[in-house]
């Protein structure tokens, strides 16, 4: 659910909260090989992803709260805040963006506005996906979905408003001394492309309509796209080269798809194999960063490894 | 939202393709607009700084400060009694639903064309006045058309239906407002090369001279 449009709440095996559904998702997590072991770095198994993620989440939540103050007319702002500031949100796109930025020596202050923007776009896509005319989900992250509370018309408009707000936020809050304007344009272009007819919209279209596409198409477009975008935007802000960006792109796409495949209820052998392949693929992409200790500080690559492990194994409960 | 069956004389998008597709198409078009604007191929002609300004101008026009804001108030305005509603309420709707986008396109053109700040603001004002004027004229025409066709003044129920300028301030004052806005729009052209301003002037005339 980190990167997905699915309404199924994430219920890790260690969940202590009252779950909406009984925990019955063990098999997938247990069967994937290489559980817990991470790439070639030994310190990574000590990396505390939970704290890293939790700290970033707190910062991101704060900034998102400030980014969408309630103005006139209040109703639309409240609807936007309802989805963006939702309690169950994991903030995976922002966290991945920051991690990718820092990998290349970028300052996380450069990444925060884009990180927030990614979360706004993500929330917007979820609001629209849940609509009665789309996936028709009355629940999102264990709570009533946006249109259930505010009505479909306001929910549609809230999604419509979050998208341009994301762009405005990037431009108004990204420190110009940290990020060149040309880079900001590339970030905007990347997000626009992700959301559009070749990205998430395409995925949702095929999900709704079907068509002569391989089963992985929906996965790739709906879920992989957002993760890919987050990683690439982070890389852009950190000053990654084009080659490094392509690596991040493939990594992000694999992680996003992996998360969804593992999250999926259908634990077929095919799905398990796909998950294993995706995990291996994501790890393989990180090899180029693992292998060059001089260029890429080991401690900065580690978060990217642990995203893969978390997607595959879900071995901790994210802080709320 | 408005639950319309027709748009520009044809069946609306959702009637043809379904609501889900229509929502996605709208989302995809928003995204495509920005993707199109930021395409690197034209990076050589316009500086990144200007392109970003243009992107933000458009973003503001379609968000809560523009289209969305106007639409929200419009949706809430159904069934309001015109006697209880001030002019600023109606103006809010039109400024946000109609004028904002018109403003944005004029300003974006000015930014990309390398105009000065002062010139940009004049064009912004020109577009805003023209946008509002369009709505006022539209409302006035509705009334006068009915009067011509029916031979009586429009006897619509003041509680139901849309808020309009004539309903709020009367037909005569609405005409005066249109005049005032027209003058304001004209004033913005002072200082510009008259030959270059011709298309804009003609556009405004067309919009307000619709009764011809």
From TrEMBL, chain A:
Keyword match Iron-sulfur: no
InterPro entries, per database record: Isoprenoid_synthase_dom_sf (IPR008949), Polyprenyl_synt (IPR000092), Polyprenyl_synt_CS (IPR033749)
Keywords carried by this UniProt record: Magnesium, Metal-binding, Transferase
Signal peptide boundaries: none
Domain of life, per lineage: Eukaryota
Pfam families to which the protein is assigned, alphabetical: polyprenyl_synt (PF00348)
The keyword rRNA-binding is assigned to this record: no
Assigned protein family: Belongs to the FPP/GGPP synthase family.
Matches recorded under PANTHER family: FARNESYL DIPHOSPHATE SYNTHASE, HETERODIMERIC GERANYLGERANYL PYROPHOSPHATE SYNTHASE SMALL SUBUNIT, CHLOROPLASTIC
Name of this protein: Heterodimeric geranylgeranyl pyrophosphate synthase small subunit, chloroplastic-like
Species this chain originates from: Camelina sativa
TrEMBL record, chain B:
Chain's role: Catalyzes the trans-addition of the three molecules of IPP onto DMAPP to form geranylgeranyl pyrophosphate.
Organism field: Camelina sativa (False flax)
Reported cofactor(s): Mg(2+)
Keyword rRNA processing among record annotations: no
Keyword annotations: Magnesium, Metal-binding
Segment forming the signal sequence: none
Protein family (similarity comment): Belongs to the FPP/GGPP synthase family.
UniProt cross-references to Pfam families, sorted A to Z: polyprenyl_synt
Matches recorded under InterPro entries: Isoprenoid_synthase_dom_sf (IPR008949), Polyprenyl_synt (IPR000092)
Gene3D superfamilies: Farnesyl Diphosphate Synthase
Keyword Magnesium: yes
Domain of life: Eukaryota
Protein name: Geranylgeranyl pyrophosphate synthase 3, chloroplastic-like
